[in-house]
C-alpha cells in the first residue's frame, strides 16, 4: 500500500519575506535527516529520501525570490557508499528519476543544473543523464543549482592538486602561477562563488567533508529540523539572522 507523504506546506504558499533580498548570493545545504524522518514514522529510509527530493524542489522554487542565485546541496558523499546496497541503489535510482522528471520544470524556471563530485563510480546511465541536463540548462541564469553526488571535500582537493601537478609538469602552468587561483580553477566548483552561508539540518554540527576549501569564510547555521521538514519559512528566518551578522573575512571592524 503506498505511503501518504503529507506536506505541511501548501503548494504555492509564499512565506513571509518572499521577494526580499537578504544579501545572500550562494547558499549551500547539508541535507541531513531523511533516514531519521522516515524511521520515526516506521517507514523505509528511502521514503525519507523521496520526501527530501520533494523538499529540494520547493526550496529551488523560492530561492531566487530571496535573492539567492546559487544553491548547492549535498546529496551523496564519498562515504555514503558504506550504506546498505538497497539504500545506495535506491538513491541512485532517485537521482536518475529526479533528473528525468524535473528537466522540463527546471528549464522553465530558468535553473541551471550542475553536478560536483567524482563521477567515475557512478553508473553509465546516471552519468549520461547528468551530462545531458547540464548541457540542456547551461544557458539558464535565474538560479544555479549544484548537486553534490559522490562528493567529498578531501577527494576534490586531492584530485585538484593532482591535476595542477600534471599541468605544471606538462608546462601548462608556470611556477609563479602555482597559487590559490590556479588551484581553485581545478576544483569541481570552478566558476562558482564561494558560499556565503552553509546550512546543516537535523541537529548535527559537523561539516562532514562538505566544501572545506570553498566554505573557509562561510557563515554556518545548524538547525534541528530534519531535511524533509525544512520549509521556505525556516529558510527566511535563517537568512534574516545572516543579515544581522558582520562578516570580517579575517579583518577588523
What do these coordinates show?
Helix 2 (45-62) runs parallel beside helix 3. Strand 3 (111-116), helix 4 and strand 4 form a beta-alpha-beta unit. Residues 1-12 have low confidence and may be disordered. The protein has 7 helices and 6 strands; from the N terminus they run E-H-H-E-H-E-H-E-H-H-E-E-H. The chain has a domain at 26-151 and 195-243: 3-Layer(aba) Sandwich (Undecaprenyl pyrophosphate synthetase), CATH 3.40.1180. Strands 3-4-2-1-5-6 form a 6-stranded parallel β-sheet, sandwiched between helices. The protein has 253 residues and is of the alpha/beta class.
Helical residue percent?
Answer: 25-40%
Number of helices: 7
Order of helices and strands: EHHEHEHEHHEEH
Q: What's the CATH class of the domain at 26-151 and 195-243, please?
A: Alpha Beta
Beta content: 5-15%
Taking the alpha carbons of the first and last residues, their distance comes to 60 Å
Poorly predicted sequence stretches spanning 5 or more consecutive residues: 1-12
Average pLDDT figure: 91
Characterize the biggest β-sheet.
6 strands, parallel
Strand order of the largest sheet: 3-4-2-1-5-6
Subunit structure: Homodimer.
Binding site for Mg(2+): 32, 219
Keywords: Magnesium, Metal-binding, Transferase
Enzyme class: transferase
A few lines on this structure:
The chain has helices spanning 34-39, 45-62, 85-108, 124-136, 153-169, 180-184, 232-243, and strands at 26-30, 70-77, 111-116, 143-151, 197-200, 219-222.
Amino acid at each position: 500500500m503506498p505511503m501518504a507523504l503529507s506536506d505541511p506546506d501548501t503548494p504555492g504558499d509564499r512565506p513571509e519575506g518572499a521577494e526580499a533580498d537578504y544579501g545572500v548570493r550562494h547558499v549551500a545545504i547539508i541535507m541531513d535527516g531523511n533516514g531519521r524522518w522516515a524511521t520515526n514514522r516506521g517507514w523505509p529510509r528511502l521514503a525519507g529520501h523521496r520526501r527530501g527530493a520533494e523538499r529540494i524542489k520547493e526550496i529551488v522554487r523560492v530561492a531566487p525570490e530571496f535573492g539567492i542565485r546559487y544553491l548547492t546541496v549535498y546529496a551523496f558523499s564519498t562515504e555514503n557508499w558504506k550504506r546498505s546496497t538497497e539504500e545506495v541503489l535506491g538513491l541512485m535510482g532517485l537521482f536518475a528519476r529526479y533528473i528525468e522528471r524535473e528537466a522540463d520544470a527546471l528549464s522553465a524556471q530558468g535553473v541551471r543544473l550542475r553536478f560536483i563530485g567524482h563521477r567515475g563510480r557512478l553508473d553509465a546511465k546516471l552519468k549520461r543523464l547528468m551530462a545531458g541536463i547540464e548541457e540542456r540548462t547551461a544557458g539558464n541564469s535565474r538560479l544555479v543549482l549544484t548537486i553534490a553526488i559522490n562528493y567529498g571535500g578531501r577527494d576534490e582537493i586531492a584530485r585538484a592538486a593532482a591535476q595542477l601537478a600534471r599541468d605544471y609538469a606538462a608546462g601548462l602552468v608556470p611556477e609563479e602561477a602555482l597559487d590559490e587561483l590556479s588551484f581553485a580553477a581545478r576544483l569541481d566548483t570552478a566558476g562558482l562563488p564561494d558560499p556565503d552561508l552553509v546550512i546543516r539540518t537535523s541537529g548535527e554540527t559537523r561539516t562532514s567533508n562538505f566544501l572545506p576549501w570553498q566554505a573557509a569564510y562561510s557563515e554556518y547555521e545548524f538547525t534541528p529540523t530534519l531535511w524533509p521538514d525544512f520549509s521556505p519559512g525556516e529558510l527566511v528566518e535563517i537568512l534574516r539572522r545572516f543579515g544581522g551578522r558582520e562578516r570580517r573575512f579575517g579583518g577588523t571592524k
